[in-house]
Amino acid sequence: MKQEIYIADKKNLSDVLNKPKLNKDDIIYLLNLTDEKDISELIRKADSVRKEYCGDEVHLRGIIEFSNYCEQDCLYCGLRKSNHQLERYRISPDEIIETARKISSAGIKTVVLQSGEDFYYKKEVVTNIIRNIKAACDVAITLSLGERNFDEYYEWKSAGADRYLLKHETANEKLYSALHSHQKLEERLTHLKYLKSIGFQAGSGNIIGLPGQTIEDIADDILLCKEFDCDMCSFSPFIPSPETPMKSIPPADLKLTLKTMAVARIVLKNVHIPATTALSTLSPEGRKLGLTVGANVIMPNFTPDEYKDKYRIYANKKTYDPVKYVEDLKQMIHSMGRKIGTDKGHSLKKNY
């Protein structure tokens, strides 16, 4: 990854970290820090901003990956349509609803419904799933279904869905087009604007470590999330999938990923930032590290066991018994002096 070299001393770093508003040059400067003491100071600042704006609560969101079919052909993703080696699956609406009940029974207040862009699940089917989950469980619902029609978004919001996660992945239009043969960045951003306009708590974010990505691109990703006033932002590392054209690209650098999360927390302040599953693939301590640099959300995977290994966006994805994992998470979170969120963890920007 191309990086500009910045020569900085401790005084300059303190000046930047204490600015009320960071510009793009400031963000680039922080992302390029290499001295371990400087990075530690950056992390301390991010953690203090997290505490000020989010408190000490860590919100758990239970994920159900209910389909690995996808109409798109993104170069980096193991679910891509051209991956004919992947055994495909779809979970029935009844099993999705039953899994949501298990998430609620584990004390988790948000259910995340995630899939590839699979139009097999028609508007009415998803609407009924949302309504049935809401009737059965006292939970918030996040949808992560890719780009769908605007009338679908509207109906799902009306049915009771609370949030929609649609990562922009990179704010570099040329890089976006190179990675997505059937999509355009402008269209994705139009979808994000619409989701916000109809009252969804909207989430976006990037992928760190994409080939050709620069530090300037990552700075633009953070600024784009600020421009769109996102309610949640995910900054996750690229991990190659063996069944894609990008199988030989090395995984993202853990240190750069953590610096990005820290800088994002300082810039974005009152957003939800997850310590992603992909962090645990880069490091066994990945999610704990994520919580130290500004994250305040973890999303345990409740996808039923017979499907879990087939949702292969990237290689070496960690799997686990979700109920036991939640108990382990609680112990880890308490050991850090943090606590488990007991409410639905809605947007920090307004009352829902």
From TrEMBL:
Example of a GO biological process term: sulfur compound biosynthetic process
InterPro entries, per database record: Aldolase_TIM, BATS_dom, Elp3/MiaA/NifB-like_rSAM, FeFe-hyd_HydE_rSAM, HydE/PylB-like, rSAM, rSAM_sf
A molecular-function term among this protein's GO annotations: transferase activity
SUPFAM superfamilies referenced in this protein's UniProt entry, alphabetically: Radical SAM enzymes
SMART domains xrefs: BATS, Elp3
Note on cofactor: Binds 1 [4Fe-4S] cluster. The cluster is coordinated with 3 cysteines and an exchangeable S-adenosyl-L-methionine.
Binding site residues for [4Fe-4S] cluster: 70, 74, 77
Chain positions recorded as S-adenosyl-L-methionine binding sites: 188
Amino-acid biosynthesis recorded as keyword: no
Protein name from the UniProt record: Hydrogenase maturation protein HydE
Name of the coding gene: hydE
